[in-house]
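Sample entry (326 residues):
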Amino acid sequence: MSHAIFPDLNPATYQRHSLHSAERDWPETNCYLDVWIELLNAMGLPPEACLGSLITQDFEGDQFTFFKVPLEDLETLFDIRVTELAIYKRVEDHILEQLSRGRLSLVEVDSYYLPDTQGFGYKQAHGKTSISVNRLDLEARTMDYFHGLSFYHLEGDDLDGIFQRGAFARELPFMPYAEFIKLPDQFPAREMVVERCRALLKRHIRRRPKENPIRSFAAVMPDHVEGLAQQPFEAFHLYAFNTLRQLGANFELYASHLSWLEEQNSGPVTEATEAARQISQTCKTVQFQLARAVMRKKFQNLDHLLDSAIDAWDELVQTLDTIPQS
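Predicted structure, serialized as tokens:
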């Protein structure tokens, strides 16, 4: 039997959200947030509203904070409740149970079996990623799911691979992490979402790092890059994903958050949005520059590559501090 939360959604005709436009600096952000962007899109809700926490991103010494949608923000904004799904039998049985109750599940799976990763992961490399299942039919061996930039379909051996069924059955060293989503009977009106979003913005501004995190990163980045040159180039990709990509994508999304609030006549001044965009654009440029430095093993003039992003972060928080906190 097939169950679906959004029965009218078709992967062949689904329109991804503009936050995943190919025109952006970072069309993909990270697997967890990307799923939520499209889930909220499918619900008819503005994903831009739930990005206020991104101003709290910090440099953690070896990486930038892996940003997510705070679950408490989802509940505050949209009355959506997310709870961990305990896995004690087959994962797909849990997913079907929740679907039958009108609940979406989010679950970690092996990207090796996801056809939407064709060309860089599908049947090439095993990796952990998060998906959300909208429709699952075990008898027909088909599934429709949210992942990355959009909404997709898989079937046959890919379904069996995802859930370690049939010829792909194997013992797992541990169960995957999973969550389920309880939707309200009715979502709050847009005006209420904007009001709640404005209050969350002020709360998160108060929680931002005390020191400029980009300045802290820039101080150690040259040494990091020189060390990466002694390793296989794949090490650089991992480093860039967890530093420049997380930083750049974080602030491109934050710029979209501020811009959306401004469109609702509730946002800060445009200077804050432009400063956040400057951080994103700088990170994209610097990522290419560091890749060349690693390949050529030339490490001169790396000290000031992030200066414009450092200045932009200072300008961003100074502008945000002008927002009345009452």
